[in-house]
């Protein structure tokens, strides 16, 4: 039982990332009909927003402390972050420590602008083009964005720690009445899962209960009829593209302490997230979320030492095997609409 619970927990954080990225992919495909292979790059840019804010908050100036000396007896040079000078040592140190959560606010306008520019500047010219053309152009855009990040931030992963209060682990097993020190789990992974649940719930609530969201859902079902009612559905779909970019960016921001940001992390998640979308059902938002968590947990179980010893490499292909089975037995996916991917 403890092994099962541990693997479920291990699958939640990766499943949360899959679900968030797949949610954005499905929003774009469901509204605009575009297969966006640059969506993983948006996840990567979000992670580097956390890196960028951490570096900005750590900018410092050099002062001379006459009361302290180095090993040669010279007055010691002290690096003082600007935020500590502006807000005081304690407050400034706390701001630097909480740079990753603060990057949520920092990344929202950046990701929204990137999404708007991407959609207005490039994607809109490929709405009526074949999916193969959309894949080629967005995949090329993803490579360009990846190389830009590599140029400015380098090729090596950049550690981006969580706030100190979430840096450790807790005894999850003891909390639910099991033996102590059996299931030890990092705090930040639980935070990431809860954050993903809030974002997913917020997106669904926005689409379900706001007038804007209702119009968008109507446009996804019958774009032409909504347009005949005098509603500029194209502008609303552009906003949804920006929203999808923000969701992917926030997923990357909060994932930075779990997986140190690097320039190819977007590609690492992109292919898997498309598999998640296909398994869940193209255009199905609930299917994308369900498939994200299910496949994340399956991948976690497939990574167990006992499983890998029996089936070497199964952890690398389990998601694709599930996708093959789903596509052979139910081509529209778990929760896809009838007729989608079945013709």
UniProtKB/TrEMBL annotation:
Question: Which GO MF terms are attached to this record?
Answer: transmembrane transporter activity
What's the short name of a Pfam family annotated to this entry?
A: BPD_transp_2
Q: Which GO terms describe its biological process?
A: amino acid transport
Transmembrane segment boundaries: 15-35, 42-64, 102-123, 190-216, 237-258, 270-295, 307-328
Subcellular location as annotated? Cell membrane
Q: What's in the GO CC field?
A: plasma membrane
Reply yes or no: does the keyword Transmembrane helix apply: yes
The signal sequence is: none
Which UniProt keywords are given for this protein, alphabetically ordered?
Amino-acid transport, Cell membrane, Membrane, Transmembrane, Transmembrane helix, Transport
Membrane-related topology note: Multi-pass membrane protein
Q: Sorted alphabetically, which PANTHER family does this protein's record hold?
A: ABC TRANSPORTER ATP-BINDING PROTEIN (PTHR11795:SF442), BRANCHED-CHAIN AMINO ACID TRANSPORT SYSTEM PERMEASE PROTEIN LIVH (PTHR11795)
**UniProt similarity note:** Belongs to the binding-protein-dependent transport system permease family. LivHM subfamily.
Q: What is this protein called?
A: Branched-chain amino acid transport system permease protein
Q: Which organism is it from?
A: Roseibium hamelinense
């Amino acid at each position: 039982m403890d092994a099962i619970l541990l693997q479920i927990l291990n699958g939640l954080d990766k499943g949360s990332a899959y679900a968030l990225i797949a949610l954005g992919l499905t929003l774009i495909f469901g509204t605009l009909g575009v297969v966006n292979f640059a969506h993983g790059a948006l996840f990567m840019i979000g992670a580097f927003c956390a890196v960028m804010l951490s570096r900005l908050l750590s900018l410092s100036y050099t002062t001379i402390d006459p009361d302290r000396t180095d090993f040669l007896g010279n007055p010691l040079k002290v690096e003082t972050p600007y935020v500590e000078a502006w807000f005081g040592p304690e407050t400034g140190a706390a701001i630097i420590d909480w740079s990753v959560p603060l990057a949520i606010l920092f990344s929202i306008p950046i990701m929204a602008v990137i999404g708007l520019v991407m959609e207005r500047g490039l994607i809109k010219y490929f709405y009526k083009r074949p999916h193969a053309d959309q894949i080629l152009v967005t995949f090329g855009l993803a490579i360009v964005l990846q190389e830009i990040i590599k140029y400015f931030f380098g090729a090596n992963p950049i550690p981006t720690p969580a706030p100190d209060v979430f840096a450790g682990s807790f005894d999850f097993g003891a909390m639910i009445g099991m033996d102590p020190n059996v299931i030890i789990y990092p705090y930040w992974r639980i935070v990431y899962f809860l954050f993903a649940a809030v974002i997913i719930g917020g997106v669904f609530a926005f689409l379900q209960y706001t007038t804007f969201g209702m119009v968008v859902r109507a446009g996804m079902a019958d774009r032409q009829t909504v347009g005949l009612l005098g509603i500029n559905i194209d502008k609303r779909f552009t906003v949804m593209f920006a929203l999808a970019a923000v969701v992917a960016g926030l997923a990357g921001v909060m994932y930075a302490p779990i997986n140190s940001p690097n320039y190819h992390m977007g590609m690492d998640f992109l292919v898997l997230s498309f598999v998640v979308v296909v398994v869940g059902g193209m255009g199905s938002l609930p299917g994308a979320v369900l498939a994200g968590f299910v496949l994340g947990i399956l991948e976690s179980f497939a990574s167990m030492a006992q499983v890998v010893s029996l089936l070497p490499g199964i952890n690398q292909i389990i998601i694709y095997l599930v996708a093959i089975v789903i596509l052979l037995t139910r081509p529209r996916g778990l929760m896809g609409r009838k007729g989608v991917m079945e013709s």
